[in-house]
Known about the structure:
Pathway: Pyrimidine metabolism; CTP biosynthesis via salvage pathway; CTP from cytidine: step 1/3; Pyrimidine metabolism; UMP biosynthesis via salvage pathway; UMP from uridine: step 1/1. Its main location: cytoplasm. Strand 3 and strand 4 (90-98) form a beta hairpin. The chain has helices at 14-23, 47-50, 63-74, 115-120, 131-145, 150-169, 187-201, and strands at residues 2-7, 30-34, 79-85, 90-98, 103-107, 123-128, 178-181. It has a single domain (2-197), classed as Rossmann fold (3-Layer(aba) Sandwich). The strands form 2 sheets. The protein has a 5-stranded parallel beta sheet with strand order 2-5-1-6-7, covered by helices on one side. A two-stranded antiparallel sheet has the order 3-4. The protein starts with a strand and ends with a helix. It is α/β, with parallel strands linked by helices and 202 residues long. Helix content is 41%, strand content 21%. The site of the ligand Nc1ccn([C@@H]2O[C@H](COP(=O)(O)O)[C@@H](O)[C@H]2O)c(=O)n1 has 12 residues, from helix 6. Residues 8, 10-16, 137, 141, 182, 184-185 line the site of adenosine-5'-diphosphate (ADP).
Amino acid sequence: MLVIGIAGGTGSGKTTVVNKMLNELPNKEVGIISQDSYYKATDNLSYEERTKINFDHPNSIDFELLVEHLKKLKSGEAIDQPVYSFVTHNRTKDTHRTHPTKVFIVEGILIFNNPELRDLCDIKIFVHADADERLIRRLKRDIQERGRDMNEVLNRYQDTLKPMHNQFIEPTKNFADIIIPNDRYNTVAVDIVRTVINDKLN
Ligand SMILES: Nc1ncnc2c1ncn2[C@@H]1O[C@H](COP(=O)(O)OP(=O)(O)O)[C@@H](O)[C@H]1O
Ligand SMILES: Nc1ccn([C@@H]2O[C@H](COP(=O)(O)O)[C@@H](O)[C@H]2O)c(=O)n1
């Protein structure tokens, strides 16, 4: 199994890039795991307490489970991926049965921050967009799709997101084999990675 890791700050366009790559590929042969699905379960906390979690710190992610799942997929076993809700800030009761495929994409802001997970990635890609561009995209997306308002997004950005990005995410760019500039849509880079995936599939 070829594992492709795709990291980058929030709003850099990781999900968009992955979807564009998957567009022209046989969907039964390429699997995807999002780090967002592996935020730690916090059933013991109230909603109010959950809103105060620092979701941009590595400690908020259940890397142990993510690594275990990826290893299982690599050894040919199916897994049950958690399903996360950005509205309740918690895992839902659902899981998503995921089967091993020839190629697996793992995407998330902090995936290169975890040495074990990093080592499981055969190709490491970092999607870059400037901070102001990412904030604008994040603001629009979180209001439209994640049930947030402007104050929530901006306060989170100033209090935790920006310092965590600088401390834990931006430095992991150094681990990348490929950096995709994504201030504008980058079809050339996406096509190149798709070619690599196609080679593996054929
Ligand atoms: N190159 C781009 N130009 C303009 N908007 C983009 C670009 N890439 C992504 N977006 C938009 O920015 C928002 C965040 O992108 P997304 O792929 O969800 O980022 P990430 O997964 O890195 O947080 C989405 O609304 C998406 O449509
Ligand atoms: N309940 C949550 C959990 C996470 N976030 C934010 O999501 C960002 C990571 O996801 P991307 O798709 O943008 O890569 C991260 O920056 C967290 O702040 C959240 O807002 N609420």
